[in-house]
Amino acid sequence: GISSCLTIYWLVSGYGLRAWRSLTALALVVAGLAAAFYLVGFTSPTSYWKSLLFAFRSTVSLTDAQINLTAWGGLFQVVLRLTGPVLLALTLLALRGRVKR
């Protein structure tokens, strides 16, 4: 319920006060899902570094680069497109709070 959402919010960003937490969470999500892309996300084999680049691009862009993804890859991309902007926004919120002090 509500308490679990607040706990996740605290863990990920310290209630919008800890920029390093949200950046760390973003890096972990991107790296983890890049590994998932590498293992089962693409229809043709690719390197981990290309998977990492694709995962990073998926967090900050809504354009599709005509990449053939498996069903799992499509799901991973949706997760990145939802979590990436949220974690970036939490980082900016924390940085804004630091600058305004």
Pick out the low-confidence regions. Answer: none
By DSSP (H or I, 4+ residues per run), the number of helices equals 4
Distance between the termini: 33 Å
What structural class results from the helix and strand content? mainly alpha
> Percent helix among the residues?
over 70%
How confident overall, as mean pLDDT?
86
- Over the alpha carbons, how many angstroms does the gyration radius reach? 15 Å
Instruction: Give a short account of the largest sheet.
Output: none
Share in β-strands: under 5%
- What is the tally of beta strands? 0
What spatial form do the alpha-carbon principal axes imply?
elongated
Q: What's the order of the H and E elements?
A: HHHH
Structural account:
By secondary structure, the protein is an all-alpha fold. 77% of the residues lie in helices and 0% in strands. The protein has 4 helices and no strands. Helix 2 crosses helix 3 and helix 2 runs antiparallel to helix 4. The longest helix has 30 residues.
SSE layout:
Layout: H1 2-13, H2 19-41, H3 48-60, H4 71-100
Helix pairs in contact: 2-3, 2-4, 3-4
Characterize this entry briefly.
The protein has 101 residues and is mainly α. 77% of the residues lie in helices and 0% in strands.
